[in-house]
Design a protein that fits this description.
Radius of gyration: 26 Å
Structural class: alpha+beta
Number of helices: 10
Number of strands: 22
Distance between the termini: 41 Å
CATH architecture of the largest domain: 3-Layer(aba) Sandwich
Shape: elongated
CATH topology of the largest domain: Rossmann fold
CATH superfamily of the largest domain: P-loop containing nucleotide triphosphate hydrolases
Length: 445
Amino acid sequence: MTRAISLHDVSKVYDRGARVVDRLSLDIEPGEFLVLLGPSGCGKSTVLRMIAGLEEITEGELLLDGEPANDLPPSGRDIAMVFQNFALYPNMTSRDNIGFPLRIETPGADHRPRVDGTARMLGIEDLLDRFPAQLSGGERQRVAMGRALARHPSVFLMDEPLSNLDAKLRNHLRAEISALTRELGVTTVYVTHDQAEAMSLGDRVAVLRGGLLQQVGTPRSVYALPRNVFVAAFIGIPRINLLRGLVRAPLDGAMTISLGKQYLRLPEPLSQDHQLLRVQQGREVIVGLRSEAIRIAKPVSARPGEVALTGLVEHVEFQGHEVLVHFNTGSHPAVVPELEAPRPARPVRRRRREGGTVLDRLRERAGALRAGPVVVLEHPADAAPEPAPPEGRLPGDLIVRTTPDIELRHGMQVPLLVDIAHLFVFDQHGERICPAPARLPDLAE
């Protein structure tokens, strides 16, 4: 049996007023595999622990199969949880660890058939008589999963179960978890900060930041239509190219987005999404281009909807099956402060200027509101010298994914073609304004 989970405006506030989860509403269907994704410290594990009953819900309501469950003890929720640190009893064999919750539920019963069946399912029959200290990390994680699976729970909660394992083992166990949960059909909530796990495992992905739900949807929809610049930059390898742009929409000419020394000319006739950009005339925006939306080719080979740029090769990353090329196109990267932080930066309180008029104060306040809580764009190039790249950041403003058969070297000037159909435009607050919310790009294009 599996069950539905509903969170209605759920919040978690600790004693000192720290709001870890803020008015989270989420419905999880029976048998669904939902991934909670976000940076460390954003409230993912707290949500999981509130569902399990290990954390008290400060505000809001938790429903299990439509029934209120806020006051249900953990033992009454029929939920099993796998922790990040395995949490195995060191003085018990694998058999005893797997059978421990069964002995608590029904003392005196013979649990060997269920323990043996669970071990066969996980491929650890030959490990049942070993202690945790005699097992590798992957074997311990299988035993921890077996302890949860042996109970035949209606909900399966996993709190970053693969984060302590090496990359090869993570990939292997990821495939095992996917096959196992689909075979059992158990509702599963999986917490991770690894987007590769989220995109490959989840039926849906819920992205959190600072305790706030940023977006929820299928992996394809979250990648193809990120709601804001945080989601766009958090999901995708390599990270999406974010550039500062200026919309120019003359009545008697083509609409363009200036990127500094070059510009993107929007194909005519304008699509409905691009027509909506007219209201941004003269305003700075954030242009988002994923690496696969750009290819190395001459303008004469442009397909419909592609526009030309040129780039100077700054760095080449050979990945084996592909090459990531860092180009300098004369564009200005959009600076998104603390993008990987678990929560947005708090707005800076400014002292009231002495002697200023009421109109001056209103202007300052309006400017602060326009700046927005997510995105801070650089100052225009003519107002200040171009800042040096942050320490650890590779040079260039545009990363392009290409095939290893194209040989490039530092300093080469290369023609580029940008597929405008896969262009993202965000406003200064980081909200997506193009494509419009109702449109899902055709990824087969």
